[in-house]
Amino acid sequence: MTHKNELLHSLKQRHVTMIALGGVIGAGLFVGSGALIATAGPAAILSYLIGGFVVILVMFMLGEMAAKSIDSGSFSTFASQYLGEWAGYAVGWLYWFKSMITITIEAILLGAILNDFLPGLPVWAGALLMLAIVISSNLYSVRSFGEAEYWLSFAKIASILLCMALGVSILLGLQSGFPAPGLSNLTAHGGFMPNGVLPVLAGVTVVIFSLGGSEIAAVAAGESEKPRENVVRAIRSVLFRVMVFYVGSVSIVILCLPWTDSASLKSPYVSLFSLAGYAWAATAMKVVLFVSFMSVMNSFLFSNSRMMYSLSQRGYAPEVFGRTNARGVPLNALALSFAVCLGILAVHFASGGDLFLTLAKSSGAFIMMVWIFIILAHARMSQKSARSWLYPFGNGVALLTLAAVLLSQAFNPDSRFQFVFMCVVTLAIAASYFTLRARPAFGIVRGK
Predict the structure, then answer these.
(1) Which residues have a Cβ under 8 Å from the Cβ of 445 and sit 6 or more positions away?
(2) Least buried of 6, 100, 139, 170, by fewest C-beta within 10 Å?
(3) What digits encode the pLDDT tens for the residues 204-228?
(4) What is the pLDDT, as a whole number, of residue 239?
(5) CB-based contact 428:366 (threshold 8 Å)
(6) Distance CA 208, CA 201 (A)
(7) What are φ and ψ of residue 11, in 5° steps?
(8) What distance lies between CA 121 and its chain's CA centroid?
(9) Measured CA distances, 14 to 26, 216, 284 (Å)
(10) Cα-flanking dihedrals φ and ψ of residue 224, to 5°?
(11) Max CA-CA distance within the chain?
């Protein structure tokens, strides 16, 4: 039986909703929030409010564009439609490249956790094992991916809600082993903003990095039963996610733990349980982190393969990656992801692990560049239709904030490399479009 090279719309609303809800809950929240609080003090909550506001603006822009047109790899499609073919090409390949970094990082982190539980299993073997397991959930069908991500996201959400419930009980004085601190931690130990405004602004970078991945809901909704309705509903739920899971939970941590307690803030959610007398907290949190990393890896493998499929369908990548099997799975695109991940893992472990930090630092800069393209595409759409409630204020605020964050990296010795690396890769991708377009014999860029 023959089949067309098309993706199947087999994800249900519950899948898309849970992918959207769980998309931003990961190590950035469970671990990264503590490092930010230890630097900015109680004013870290302002970093989350500012960063969250930018993410909300960008995702609402994406939702408005998705309401008019939906396609797999949608934000790349929007860039093509409103900014030109070169922009769609650049956004698609930038996102694909960034996703490969994220997938590899998650595999390494999963391998490290497995090594903690099973010391006889080397980190490299654990990383390879988890890469094979997660890609298997993507190989069978989009429904199998949806089911796997549904339950992984459910576990993450349940975990963070449990942490928040514990924090509230501490604040209400319901934990006998943990005296209720009231509001004292907001002003004690040097005040609300003990280190000034600069750490707060720098913290916005951490928040935006943590919230990267919100756009995956748009890709997943493209393979749901009602793409346009589901993508808009999923993206609009970002307001709930940011306010509850990030701003809400971080506020609880700030109220419960002094910002000067650097030891507890290394893993703040574990510390809440440990200080309340729950000795099993550290082991339980390792399981939660394992689930979180697995969920992120699962989601990015999905979105990565669909982006490659979309690039191929529009003539921006070789035709072979636009082919699907009878279940609508782009197997060749997934095989490419697997092969590239293996290559990165090999280089990482051969270099003694030095590549990990470099990759981790650069991934956030790439997602911010993708978001800048989304903002510009939305502005162009608004100029044509003049029906957007965000334009031009929302576009200006989001664009200036992201530009400021990226430029701040250029002047910071600790983050200058990631800024330069992102710029070089972006320029190389843009240049490759015009180079390949001028040589149609390669058969890759077939746009007008």
Answers:
(1) 89, 315, 316, 433, 436, 437
(2) 6
(3) 877 877 777 677 766 666 666 666 6
(4) 67
(5) no
(6) 11
(7) -80, 140
(8) 28
(9) 20, 15, 27
(10) -95, 175
(11) 74
The DSSP secondary-structure symbol of 11 reads B
Count of Cβ atoms closer than 10 Å to residue 243 Cβ = 14
How far apart are the C-alpha atoms of 430 and 432, rounded to whole Å? 5
In DSSP terms, which residues pair with 11 in a beta bridge?
Answer: 224
The b/e string for 44-71 (b: 16+ C-beta within 10 A; e otherwise) is bbbbbbbbbbbbbbbbbbbbbbbeeebb
Helix, strand, coil percentages (3-state) for the chain, rounded to 5, are: 75, 0, 25
Tokens representing residue 423 in the block: 């710029």
Asked whether 61 and 374 are in contact (CB, 8 A), the reply is yes
Tell me, what's the pLDDT at 236?
66
Q: Tell me the three state secondary structure of residue 10.
A: coil
Higher per-residue confidence, 123 vs 441: 123
Q: What angle in degrees, to the nearest 10, is found between the helix axes of 32-40 and 198-211?
A: 170
**What pLDDT score was predicted for residue 118?**
92
Residue 148 identity (one-letter amino acid) = A
Between the alpha carbon of residue 107 and those of residues 131, 132, 273, 291, 305, the distances in Å are: 6, 10, 27, 12, 17
CA atoms lying within 13 Å on the CB side of residue 121: 16
- DSSP annotation string for 230-247: HHHHHHHTHHHHIIIIII
pLDDT in tens, 55-85: 888 888 887 787 666 554 468 888 988 999 9
Q: What is the pLDDT of residues 85-112, one digit of tens each?
A: 999 999 999 999 988 888 888 898 889 8
Checking if the pLDDT of 47 tops 50, the result is yes
Residue predicted with more confidence, 350 or 326 = 350
Beta bridge partners of 224: 11
pLDDT in tens, 285-321: 788 888 888 888 888 888 888 889 888 888 888 888 8
3 state SS of 36: helix
**pLDDT exceeds 90 at position 21:** no
Rounded-to-integer distance, Cα 131 and Cα 194, Å: 43
